[in-house]
Amino acid sequence: AKARYDEAIKKQNDAAARYEKEKNDIKSKAEGYEAQWTALDVHNDQFDMAEATLSVAIALLGVTALTQKRWMLGVAGVFAIFGMVMGVCGFAKLAFHPNWLASFLS
Questions:
Q1: Distance of CA 71 to the CA centre of its chain
Q2: Of 7, 43, 76, 100, which is the most exposed, with the fewest CB atoms less than 10 Å away?
Q3: Contact by Cβ (8 Å): 50, 90
Q4: Counting beta carbons within 10 angstroms of the beta carbon of residue 76, is it exposed (0 to 12), middle (13 to 18) or buried (19 or more)?
């Protein structure tokens, strides 16, 4: 009976060691994915900035059409250009990232 118990204990110890190794492998793999997500999150912020500024530009262009103010057309153009630049930066995976705007939009 003692031999069966020793064998069962050995099997449990082997399983525990295998699970510990698998746990460490999964943990290192998850940390790698987390680092990849952090690197890609910059581009998510860029697309958020592009969407926000282009939405403001469209709204300003609508108001400009109603009021016929040339200076408002310029302001809308600045927002539109910045939105397009941020969209291109997101697609081209460029590192341009205004932190103050990202924290404002978050």
A1: 35
A2: 100
A3: yes
A4: buried
Dig out the tokens for 67 from the structure. Answer: 């009021």
What pTM was estimated for this model as a whole? 0.66
Closest CA to 61 of 48, 38, 78: 78
**Residue 32, token pair as written in the block:** 């790698």
Can you read off the two tokens belonging to residue 52?
């926000």
Q: What is the pLDDT of residues 87-103, one digit of tens each?
A: 999 999 888 888 887 77
Q: What is the pLDDT of residues 17-68, one digit of tens each?
A: 999 999 999 999 999 999 888 888 888 889 989 999 999 999 999 999 999 9
CA end-to-end span of the chain: 64
